[in-house]
Amino acid sequence: MKVIVTKDYEEMSRVAADIVSQVIREKPDAVLGLATGSSPIGLYRNLIAMYEEGRLSFKHISTVNLDEYVGLPVSHDQSYAYFMRFNLFDHVDIDIGNTHIPDGCAADLDEQCRRYNSLLATLRQDMQVLGIGSNGHIGFNEPGTSFDSVTHVVDLTESTIRDNSRLFASIEDVPVKAVTMGISNIMNAKKIVVVANGSNKAQAVYNMVKGNVTEDCPASILQRHANAVLVCDTLAAAKLQQ
Ligand code: GLP
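^ thats the input. predicted complex w/ GLP below
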């Protein structure tokens, strides 16, 4: 995969936003696969700025999000549905009806997964935005997930629960399950941009870019994608340069 190392989070966010905005300009009705987490917030901030300056429109864009916690209603400030409205959708001209996020509160989660898979079959991502977990997860595909997986319900690992607990009042409040696109759904995207920053991502970034392609590091599969680019800061890139 192509690697772009930037000096800090701000530059990483600008470069990644340029890559995503290019897709939107070339194809105004593109399908964007979107990610949550702290890594892409700056990217979204840059896209919002381009919209505010009249340089970008989301009017005909559709979006599919990677994942959602099980059991958090959309009104919960840690649900990914809330995150997307707060960090992007509420600030641009997107038609909210064209935005799709798995429903982690669906009564029948298996049925929800099947529906999301059918949706992804019709809405193939022109560009998929990804972050990476410190254990190498993408979406909520934890180490050990099959590369052939499609949308499914996952039990979050202890390390992911611990990482994400910083955003909740206490670790007991972090959901233990999530619905996530599978790895094959992610690999089906025409283009992929991964954003990663901070020293806590350095090992996962190394395993993703230079490690063996193994289900022990879900992100390592991206080495086999024809059009994947990593944009990361120098801290996250530290082990690549050794
Ligand atoms: C969560 C999300 C992932 C995200 C990861 C890293 O687990 N499901 O999509 O990539 O966190 O988050 P952050 O960017 O906050 O480090």
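The chain has one domain: 2-233.
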